[in-house]
């Protein structure tokens, strides 16, 4: 045993000095010439004092920086994967707060939802975004989705047409597994509730998805062109079961009546006219 400890001691202590090192006279340990902190340390092993290598301050700073960079790269890779899975329509990646033109006076509430996300998740609080066609409901929801994805939060933004297409070719147990898989996302966003097919199969699956989310106690954001009155007074029992669950967990928020889609189209036409009338075409 003494031979082993002696060998270890020789390996660690008896090494030549590097160009950026010196031996400190007070502790007889190798120190860094740059930061003046030791690169060796006294320890006691099996009752015998030994000298072992350690990182000096500047070496530790380099190590910490490299580790931080590695973790940052891993985080960016994670965010990229989350976006690929959660934003099934690539155009949704443009729905960000940075691209907000300030047309929607309710957008501050989207910022607030993101800021208070931990509380929203803990209390299973979602949003019901309702209003006329083209008023920015999907953009509002997409801004929340992208902001949370940038924080590494798993979010899925989809619609029932896409979900129903996926479910139509599955057997009963596979359907259940698919619906359960939607709850792997911390936030589920269903765009355009009410435009899906109104068949018995479709409404049953819509209920199953909403009910599964309801029972999971995870937040849900829904956008719809229906009015709040229509949601509160559905035409049949099946829809009532669906909308009741949405209204219980999702705070209704009316998105303004301004047709942002038409406004954007008008601005695009204006820019096109400028280009065409400038006579600078090639």
Q: What is the oligomer described by this structure? A: single chain
Structural class: alpha/beta
Give the proportion of residues in helices. Answer: 40-55%
Q: Give average pLDDT, whole number.
A: 86
* SSE pattern: HEEEEHHHEHEHHEHEHHEH
* Number of separate structural domains: 2
| Name of the level-1 CATH class of the largest domain | Alpha Beta
Q: Please identify which CATH superfamily of the largest domain we are dealing with.
A: P-loop containing nucleotide triphosphate hydrolases
GO molecular function, one term: ATP binding
Keywords: ATP-binding, Coiled coil, Nucleotide-binding
GO biological process, one term: DNA replication
InterPro entries: IstB_ATP-bd, P-loop_NTPase
């Amino acid at each position: 045993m003494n031979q082993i400890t002696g060998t270890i001691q020789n390996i660690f202590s008896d090494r030549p000095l590097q160009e950026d090192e010196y031996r400190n006279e007070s502790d007889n340990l190798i120190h860094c010439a740059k930061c003046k902190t030791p690169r060796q340390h006294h320890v006691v092993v099996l009752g015998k004092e030994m000298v072992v290598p350690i990182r000096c301050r500047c070496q530790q700073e380099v190590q910490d920086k490299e580790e931080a960079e590695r973790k940052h790269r891993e985080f960016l890779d994670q965010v990229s994967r989350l976006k690929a899975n959660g934003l099934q329509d690539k155009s949704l990646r443009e729905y960000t707060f940075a691209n907000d033109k300030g047309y929607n006076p309710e957008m501050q509430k989207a910022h607030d939802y993101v800021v208070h996300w931990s509380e929203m998740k803990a209390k299973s609080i979602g949003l019901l975004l309702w209003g006329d066609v083209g008023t920015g409901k999907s953009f509002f929801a997409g801004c929340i989705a992208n902001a949370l994805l940038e924080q590494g939060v798993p979010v899925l933004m989809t619609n029932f047409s896409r979900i129903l297409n996926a479910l139509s070719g599955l057997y009963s147990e596979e359907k259940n597994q698919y619906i359960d898989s939607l709850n792997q996302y911390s936030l589920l966003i269903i765009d355009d509730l009410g435009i899906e097919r109104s068949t018995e199969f479709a409404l049953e699956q819509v209920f199953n998805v909403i009910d599964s989310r309801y029972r999971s106690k995870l937040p849900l954001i829904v956008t719809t062109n229906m009015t709040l009155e229509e949601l509160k007074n559905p035409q049949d029992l099946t829809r009532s079961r669906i909308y009741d669950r949405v209204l219980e967990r999702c705070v209704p928020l009316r998105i303004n009546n301004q047709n942002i889609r038409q406004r954007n189209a008008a601005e695009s036409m204006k820019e096109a006219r400028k280009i065409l009338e400038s006579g600078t075409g090639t």
